[in-house]
Structure formats: structure tokens, C-alpha cells
Amino acid sequence: MAFVKVVVVCFIAVLIADLVAAQSCPQTITFSPCLTNVGNTGTPPAYDSQCCKLVRDPKWTDQCLCAVVSSHFPGVDETKALNLAHDCGRRVPKGIYCDGRPVPP
Questions:
Q1: What distance in Å separates the CA atoms of residue 81 and residue 77, rounded to the nearest whole number?
Q2: CA 75 to each of CA 9, 26, 27, 38, 69: distance values in angstroms, whole numbers, following the listed order
Q3: Please, what sign has the CA dihedral across residues 38, 40, 44, 45?
Q4: Which residues are the signal sequence here (predicted)?
Q5: Contact between 36 and 14 (Cβ < 8 Å)
Q6: How far is CA 25 from CA 1, 29, 31, 56, 68, in A?
């Protein structure tokens, strides 16, 4: 029974992440490959991971990053989310803020 609850919670988190990204990004983009990296117990993604491929994709704009940071998903570490671009080797112009917090260049 506990396993079913965990699966349902994970499924809902993925749906919410995809919905927020779709509403806030110019294109419909899924954020689910990065959920394990921005979780409270997550580790920074590897440069060649699916998450980093998504973050470096030109369709994935600063709006997408900010959508994740400002969504306040339960279990998402906002500092880790802010650092995704930096961790994946994507350059972000200075002066970009998400939810009032600076994004590391």
C-alpha cells in the first residue's frame, strides 16, 4: 500500500512539473528528467544526463527555469533548481532573477 502511495505522489509531481513548464515556457517542455536532481535529496546532474540535455536545449528558456523555481513544488530544493543551468554548463546572463532570487551565471 505504501508503494502505491509513493508511485501516485511521484506521478502527480511529474504532472504538475510538466503543467507548470508548459504554461510558463514558450514551448511545451517537460521538466520531469530533472526532478530527481532538484529534490531535497538530489545531487547535481551529470553534464551528459537527460536533465542537462534539456537545460541546454535552446527551447528551454530562462522562463522555464523560473517556472520551476517559483512553483514551490513540495520536495523541490529551490537553490538546486536555481543552480541547474550553471550545473549543466548553460550560461545565463547576469541579472536574471527567479522569484526574487538571482540565478548564478
A1: 6
A2: 11, 25, 25, 8, 12
A3: negative
A4: 1-22
A5: no
A6: 36, 7, 11, 14, 10
CA distance 34 to 39: 9
- CA–CA gap between residue 3 and residue 26 (Å, rounded): 36
pTM of the model: 0.67
Residue spans of the domains in the chain: they are 2-102
Which cell numbers hold the place of 42? 538530489
pLDDT tens-digit series, residues 27-38: 546 778 888 888
CA distance 49 to 52: 5
Cell of 105: 551565471
Per residue in 48-94, pLDDT (tens digit) is 999 999 889 888 888 888 887 887 778 888 888 889 989 999 988 88
